[in-house]
Amino acid sequence: MLNNTILSILLLLFLSTIVTKSQTVVVPVNIHIPILFKAISLEKNINKPDLETFVVGVAYEEGNERSVGIKNEILSFGKNEKYDLLDGKSVRFEAIDVNTTKDIRELLYQINPAALYIAPLNQNMLQKVMSATQKGKVLSITGVPEYVDDGVSVGIGIKGDSPEIIINLAASKEEGAQFSSKVLGLARIVQ
């Protein structure tokens, strides 16, 4: 009986660690979004001269408090901030509730985002979203640094007291990205 109780407690602790790890944004939105935009503006395929509006999808899960909170912060930030990071192009954020989207890849095709920001998601949904970005050749970006290790292309983490750009080279190539040597020299690269 005591062994079952201890085993149950250990299992709960382990599962809560997995959920916490996979949903932590470590740099505030108002700091990491401009850094991400600067990094992706140096990606060779994303900043096309004929592109008038730079659309960024925001993948989130309704019902997931952290996910909805980050989505709301990004949408609010997008309404209040003007970007000169992308050669004066206007930026529009498009919220995508991945729980109500049957075919994420088809939706990405319809809204044609230049990038997809991935808010905190459960692990199963994260895998579905990453599959869609790879198949649809849409650059995936995030504020959850662990997601870059899991296969998201670009994220923001912390090194010491400063934000750090993290690039998953294999994932970014799978999504069709080609980063300049300038951004690669500034970023921590993971495989």
Structural commentary:
Strands 2-1-3-4-5-6-7 form a 7-stranded mixed sheet, sandwiched between helices. Strand 1 (53-60), helix 3 (65-80) and strand 2 (90-97) form a beta-alpha-beta unit. It has helices spanning 2-21, 29-41, 65-80, 104-111, 123-136, 145-150, 169-174, 181-186, and strands at residues 53-60, 90-97, 115-118, 139-142, 154-159, 162-168, 188-190. It is an alpha/beta fold and 191 residues long. The longest helix has 20 residues, at 2-21.
What's the layout of helices and strands?
Elements lengths: L1 H20 L7 H13 L11 E8 L4 H16 L9 E8 L6 H8 L3 E4 L4 H14 L2 E4 L2 H6 L3 E6 L2 E7 H6 L6 H6 L1 E3 L1
Helix pairs in contact: 4-5
Q: In a nutshell, what does this entry contain?
A:
The chain has 191 residues and is of the alpha/beta class. It contains eight helices and seven strands, in the order ααβαβαβαβαββααβ.
Main sheet strand line-up: 2-1-3-4-5-6-7
| Beta content | 15-25%
Order of helices and strands: HHEHEHEHEHEEHHE
Low-confidence stretches: 10-22
Rg over alpha carbons: 17 Å
Count of beta strands: 7
- Summarize the main sheet: 7 strands, mixed
Termini separation comes to 45 Å
Task: Give the % helix.
Answer: 40-55%
Mean pLDDT: 83
Number of helices: 8
Helix/strand structural class: alpha/beta
